[in-house]
Structure formats: structure tokens, C-alpha cells
Amino acid sequence: MFHIILGLLVYGVEDSRHSRAGIQNKGWGLKLLLWLALVVVSFFIPNQFFIVWGNYIALIGGAIFVVFQLILLIDFAHSWSEECLRKIEIEQKDHWKYFLVGSTLFLYLASLVLIILAYVFFSSAGCSLNQFIITTNLVLNILATVLSVHPRIQDANPRSGLAQSSFMIIYSTYLISSALTNEPITPDNSQCNPLSQAAGTRTTTIVMGALFTFFAIVYSTSSAAVQGHSLMTSDSTGEGSVPLLGSEAQQSSDDSDDTPADDEKFGVHYSYSFYHLVFCLASMYVAMLLTNWNTFQTQDSTIIVIGRSLASLWVKVASSWVCLLLYVWTLVAPVLIPDREWY
Hints:
The protein is mainly alpha-helical. The protein has one domain. Helices cover 69% and strands 1% of the residues. The protein contains twelve helices and two strands, in the order αααααααααααββα. A two-stranded antiparallel ribbon has the order 1-2. Strand 1 and strand 2 (304-305) form a beta hairpin. Helix 4 crosses helix 12 and helix 9 runs antiparallel to helix 11. The protein is flat.
């Protein structure tokens, strides 16, 4: 609600001269009080509201944010590899080449180790579901690797290669491993998750998952707010509909002033309202993480197990598969639709 309110208040702001522009960049004390007030008010809202919110609104918003995460992760993989290649071409130094090759080999090796461990611990006799999940991920990993170095795809995008695919493969394999370690235990599949009773494993999984989620949300919210709006509002020239900088005359008059330069005086760098929309979706995603995607499993009257449910398992598995399929699409799209400019 905090980000919905702020998003509505700054809707339509196109530069810092707008009367409502200060809502975004100023008034931190008032915004903190607003947030605290909403936190207090939430304790007086009937539980039935949160049941409806979790079953429908937050569930859909969290799923949308997962898609944002995956798209931005793919964009990050391409950008990271292309930046390394650019450094190699411009600086002509071997350490960038060693870094790119070494990191690619390390990520592939780590992915292979995770897959082998998944087969060892989670695919014993009778665990057909786990065997299917691990094998499907392995097949998609091989597909992404082969396509990344395919000659036709290399012709369409010479910068595509193993570096990007290694990044996507390690992430998708991590998701599969995390899903399997959080698989709920029943009398029929007690041997399919032998790590379920290991306190150290659970603690490690929770800590790693929390750290990765934190960094993913920080990167996703900041990048999606800027890049996502730019993509959604691009015109035929490929540039955003809101100019980032004014004319030379406007800039020169700005520079002549003694006040600090305002780089958004003639156009915001990102959509303020879209920025808050992304943070709103991120808060729904966190709510889903903390409630097992709105499912609960209790061990006794005082302990609620977080992350161990079929819903949580399938969200991670589906995210892993969608991640790889989206990456595969970025590889084959320039070949299938050559008339469009993709890069």
C-alpha cells in the first residue's frame, strides 16, 4: 500500500520541475511516518482480508515479479558477457580474457556438481518426480549450451556464447537444488529428501536463499524500474518517449547556474510511478516467500515450516524452466525473426 500510494501521487511526473516531483526525492521523514502508520494499521485489519490478498492479489503480483526477475537476469547475463568482450577488444589485456573463460568454466563445473549431488541425494528408487525434475533441467541445460554456440545463432549474434549460458545454467540449477531441498516429506516419499531433517542443511539453505533473494530483489527492483519502463515506452527510433536530457541551450543555462546541477530538470531518468509499481510487486513476492506461496505446514503447535510445500517447490521448478526457455528464446529469436533489430 505504501508504494501504491506513492505511485499514484507521482503518476504523470515527467521532470523535476513538476509540483509533485518532490514526493519522489524529498520528504523522507513524512514517508517514513506514512510507512510506520500503515504497519500499525495492518494489525487492525481482519484476517479475512489477508486471506483474499494472499490467494489472489499477492499471488499474481509475486508471479509477475518472478517474470521480471528472470528477464532481468537474462539481460544481466548478456550485458556481463558483452562488457567483458568489450574490455578485451578495447584494452587488449589478457586478464579480462582469463576472467571470462575462468568464470565460465567455474560456473559450468559448479552446475555439474549440483546436478550430480541432486541425483545422488534426491533421485533414489521411488522418487520418480525428482528424477523427472532433475533430468528435465539437465536436458534444458544441454539445449541452452548447444544453441549458444550454434553457427546460425553465432551469425545472428556473434557475442552470444558459453559465458551467457553458464550464468543461466548455474541459476536454473540452483533453483532446482533449492526446490528439492525444500520438498515436503510424506510417508510415501520419506527417502526423496534425506536432507529434510538435517538442521545444518536447512539453516544453510535458508541463509543462502535469503541472501540471494535480497540481492535479486535489490537488482530487480532498481533495474526493472528503469529498464522496464524504457522498454515499454520506446518509440520507433528505439529511444524512450521521455528525453533524458534537454537541448544544448537548456543544458548550458543549467550549467551557468550556481546551484547544483539537476539532471532531471528536462526529463526524468525513469518513470516514478513504474518504479513504485515494481517495488509493490516485490513486496508481494516477499510475502509469498514468507508464506510458502500462501500455503502453511506446521510441525507442532509452535513451529511453522517456511519454504517446504509443493507450491513452493513447483514455483522454483517452473521459474528454473522458464528462465532457460526465455534464454533460449533470446538465442533463436534473431534467427527466426531476422528483420527485427534485437541488439
